[in-house]
Amino acid sequence: MSEVAPLPGHEAQELQRAFDVFNQVSQALTQAYQGLQRRVESLTAELAVANGELRRQYEEKEALSERLSLLLDALPAGVVVLDSAACVSEANPAACEMFGAAIIGKSWPAVLEASLVATEAPGEWHFDARRLAIVESPLDSAGGRILLIHDVTAAHGLKAELERHQRLVAMGEMAATLAHQLRTPLATALLYSANLGQADLSDSARIRFASKTTAQLQRLERLIQEVLLFARGESIGCDTMSAEELLGDAAQTVQPLFLEKQVAFRVICSAARVIVTGSRKALAGALVNLLENALQACTVGGQVTLWASECGRQLRIGVRDTGSGIAPEVQLRVFDPFFTTRAQGTGLGLAIALGVVRAHGGTLSVSSVLGEGSDFVIFLPIETAAAQLH
């Protein structure tokens, strides 16, 4: 049997070094594998925790979605979701009950035109015998919208009833004042009419007494009309008018009064084409009340200005006079029913004007400086609910 010849010394050393390097690499690979294995175990544990958290969040969102769905189903208000094309994509049962389940997929503007009629109040609509309030909010960046629809029929009826009771309470509290105001012109008219029965009365005196009697009766008639108007409240219509037409109606009515008292009167309208919706008669009547009030505050040579301008989405209408002004303590009560500083006043003109403006969704304010005159300013909305929803 032949023997293996031993390797030369330098070859043995090279082989030994190779084995040492192999052992080192093997140990490094083993350590790297162990580290990788530990990292895999750590990541697996982290993934398990993350999966558990995601599962928990999913379950919570699922429960929240279910609760929201139940809430929408139980909500008495209608909820309608519109896509970017203004078509109904979703509707809760209350909305389906109002408009029918077939509303889904329809164009909302078409539903508005076919089923709803705009009221005098922005954002409120007549639907059959009901009155609906519609509030719109953006839903997403894609142009979707969500509509919340409330049936405010009962609330509107209660509001009207409350306003009526408030007017009746105010009338009851001021009954004594009203009785005195009625008694004065009535007694004067009776006195003048009694003189008409004198046999030796001249024709000129008879004409004078008859004229004075008529004037007192007319004063009495106007007082009764104002009381009835305040007690009943003004019904608000759906007339469409420009600011120029509205100011023109009021100016035409009061022009002879200003000529008679020799007070300058001018109209400045920088919002002639602005359109408002409501009762043309009631709004013009409110302006006439303000103009008559301003006229009574002026003396011969004074001036009253009726002006209008556009401010954002509101129409401003003002009545400015150069009269004696209103004391600060009187300004606090100037709109109170039956409050007046004039012996011949009823105290209802400004109260009626304020009621008309509020019924149209507007406001009425006063600013005045003693000795420098007063400025009554009306703010009326000029953007209709239809414009907001389309």
From TrEMBL:
Keywords: Coiled coil, Phosphoprotein, Transferase
Positions in coiled-coil regions: 26-67
Histidine kinase domain residues: 177-384
PROSITE patterns: HIS_KIN, PAS
E.C. numbers: 2.7.13.3
Catalytic activity: ATP + protein L-histidine = ADP + protein N-phospho-L-histidine
GO molecular function: phosphorelay sensor kinase activity
Superkingdom of source: Bacteria
Domain PAS: 64-100
Enzyme class: transferase
Pfam family, one: HisKA
Protein name in the entry: histidine kinase
Organism: Candidatus Accumulibacter vicinus
Phylogenetic classification of the source organism: Bacteria, Pseudomonadati, Pseudomonadota, Betaproteobacteria, Candidatus Accumulibacter
